[in-house]
Specification:
CATH class: Alpha Beta
Distance between the termini: 38 Å
Largest sheet: 5 strands, antiparallel
Strand order of the largest sheet: 1-2-3-5-4
CATH topology: HIT family, subunit A
Order of helices and strands: HHEEEHEE
Radius of gyration: 15 Å
CATH superfamily: HIT-like
CATH architecture: 2-Layer Sandwich
Helix content: 25-40%
Strand content: 15-25%
Number of domains: 1
Bound molecules: guanosine-5'-monophosphate
Oligomer: single chain
């Protein structure tokens, strides 16, 4: 699968750290960590070395997919310079899964903090589409 991702440049050292965090960092364990570790099932739509995408259990539109990094980052509040390539990759994966779903128009949402609606403190991108969406959100 990874050979198709020509545009991601993440140093080898970081990849190892991502795997190590994903497997053993139980202190920051969330429901999404458990999904990544296969402890909780999900309806997977895309997976690669850096992220996993699966259908939201409570979809707000005909298509509602969550994309989560394998690295357990709490939220956009906690990203660092070293996450630059990963963040770009996650955005490109939004396009990939939207295309897979046959969407040419969709909304990408990243709730950051409880006040903004974040309920699971593992960074995730919502890809929401398949119906008209109004603005501003509630
Ligand atoms: P947030 O509100 O943190 O931005 O988004 C969390 C999302 O995770 C919600 O849309 C919620 O429906 C979804 N979610 C919560 N629990 C599960 C689960 O066990 N499986 C899946 N696939 N999605 C979940």
């Amino acid at each position: 699968m990874f050979h198709k991702i020509k545009y991601v440049v993440i140093p080898k050292k970081s990849k190892i750290e991502y795997r190590a965090c994903n497997q053993f960092d139980m202190t920051s364990s969330t429901l999404f960590t458990k999904i990544l570790q296969g402890e909780i099932p999900c309806d997977e739509v895309y997976s690669d070395e850096f992220c996993l995408a699966f259908r939201d259990i409570n979809p707000q539109a005909p298509t509602h997919i969550l994309i989560i990094p394998r690295k357990p980052i709490e939220s956009l509040c906690k990203v660092e310079q070293e996450d630059k390539a990963l963040l770009g990759h996650l955005l490109l994966v939004t396009q990939k899964v939207a295309n897979q779903e046959g969407l040419t128009q969709w909304r990408t949402v990243i709730n950051t903090g409880a006040e903004a609606g974040q309920t699971i403190f593992h960074l995730h991108l919502h890809v929401i589409g398949g119906r008209h969406q109004s603005w501003p959100p509630g």
